[in-house]
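Attaching the record inline, Q. Sequence:
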Amino acid sequence: MRALVARRLDGPDAIELIETALPEPAAGQVRIKVAAAAVNPVDVAISTGALVEFGLTAAREQFGLGWDVAGTVDAVGPNTSAPAQTVVGVADLLGRALKTHAEYVVLDADAVVRAPEGVDLASASTFGLNGLTALQAVNALEGQTVLVTGAAGGVGGYAVELAKHRGLTVIASARAHDEQLVADLGADHFVNRDDDLAAAVRRIVPAGVDGVIDAAVVGIAAQEAVRNGGRHVHLQGGPRPPHLRGITVEQHFIHTNQQDLNELVRLVEAGVLSARLADTYRLDEAAIAYKRVAAGGVRGRVVLLP
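Structure, as predicted:
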């Protein structure tokens, strides 16, 4: 089968499309024939070696690429049952030699759930990683008001939708040209990310918000908008901001599990979460897709079709 891997860690131009043996599922695993797999910023970060530099994974000769997947189960390991025939899943282990940017992928069965009904598989591959990150970040909040930075992006957009669904008052920070987008996602208030963030937020909530989901990794500038004793959910693997003014700082890393994935599927089917597809590329066009994601500003996910 064909699969995308990173060996030289020199960025999108260095990723390789290789021929490799078809992987076999072990006990507790399923093999998926990949129909679609989204490209996320973390895939670009793996291709550049950034995650090795951050100490989030050990150096190795070959990194598999791709976290999200939608497709059909075509084999199961011993004493294992698949949750459905048509599925979505998330590969959350950084160090695998083969991942979802391939013609087939083997995942743990508890990282796979049925695909949402009424959604094409390209779109179904767009919400897993970002949706899990946003859902688990929202779960870490306390209180009634939240600031979401990077609110027009993949994680930030889902955080807006999920927080609003929970009944929170949402202040969204994004660039000026994305104001209508974040309003459509459900944000109650908009602040321009190029303005003084804390000052803009405190004009809306003078005491400061109860929490921030810092999807844009603004850091201290976002934390200054949080009230004393509030919460700061930090969404990057590098150094995290300090616990100033009694603020709890949670450096959040996702963990794939069926309960949360099933919740995302239910919310997509209910129209609460949007499956945001920006464009599709073939596997042999992966370098183009990766460069587009690396350049930033994509609204929705770029998806590879094997």
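The chain has ten helices and 16 strands. The longest helix spans residues 128-139.

More tomorrow.
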